[in-house]
Write the structure tokens for this entry.
Amino acid sequence: MAKKKEAPANPFVPAEEQPYPIPENWCWAYLTGFTECLDSFRKPINATERAGRSGTVPYYGATGQVGWIDDFLTDEQLVLVGEDGAPFLDRMKDKAYMIEGKAWVNNHAHILRSYFGPIGNFYLLNYLNCFDYSEYVNGTTRLKLTQSSMNTIPIPIAPLPEQQRIVDRIESLFAKLDEAKEKAQAVVDGFELRKSAILHKAFTGELTERWRKEHGVELDSWTEWKLKDCGDWCGGGTPSMAHPEYWNEGDLLWVTSKDMKSDVIEDTLMHTNMTGVENSSANYIEKPSVLFVMRSGILRRTLPIAMVKIPFTINQDLKAISPTDDLDLEYFFWVCKSAEKRLLGTCMKNGTTVESINAKALMEFEIPIASQVEQKQIVACIVSLLNKEQQAKEAAEAVLDQIDIMKKAILARAFRGELGTNDPAEESSIELLQSVL
């Protein structure tokens, strides 16, 4: 917890309290020496009152706009930094933001205005978003940056031309990073679409078109099978929770809809044992199978389908099918995954309290089946292509993780005078501060 800090009488930070070295023509000052606090212009309005005063003026809080209102308290460019409710201890998240024009600010954000106009405002904004607040906030459940503590924040002040160059360099570097971020995000966001396209090509014959030509196989060799004919179907159940002996020391996977989050299920949230299976409607399933969620709220969005390759059992909200010997397990899984949207559209029950799949409609659903040899070829193509897509997605996610770190590193260098923009011959910023104080 931060100690209570007194507002400084002298705007310049004493040498022994300066956080780190800066260029000789810069100076360390407390926030009050660089910025005017306009907290007297803020006013909280509760949500009920705002509901009756709807308008076009943004209403701001600790981390951004939180609503609209019919009047304004400020009408200029200002920097807001959270008083409480901001992520003060998360170095990767911003604590300050800029507002322009008519605005109404509540009491969860401090209102700041640099003495040096827009250049100073942007300089201040960037500094506040890389500052370490750990010694300046108080509180346990909700950290708070009081005005008196905020006033003691030290800020390295560069000459005004250098402030402009720093702001320009930051904006230029951030623009390049944002462009990279946009491209990386597009790769991540497009993963499911590309996956769907691969599966569509797989089960319309496009992926193995060349293979068929090389092996003299025609597409009309494919047939349509109903799901009821694809293997042995099995339902599930729940061993009584009132009997801990059904669950203690259990090593048998008990799959529920909560476990259906990956293509292959290798572990489950809960495990049962054979005693539990034998004393319930659950079934011991030894053969590798494909699982379908039959009843769950998640069916509003998607139909979870997964494979299990080791012995398991399921609860009553799932169904399992062990494919016939003519069907490759992974081929069967992927062809069902490719038909997920059609399955939902065709087999969803209407008018039920909890979303569920119509078992009869599911059994009658038809899927394309290639020869056993081509099935394995299709699976190999799918696995190869999806592995490449997964690698691209993970690389893009790594880029996204690094971009915010790189931005904070740029800001840290900027306020140490390490961006290569400083001109030592420029007038010291001490004179700059003295001109406004």
Summary: The longest strand covers residues 109-114. The mean pLDDT is 94. The radius of gyration is 31 Å.
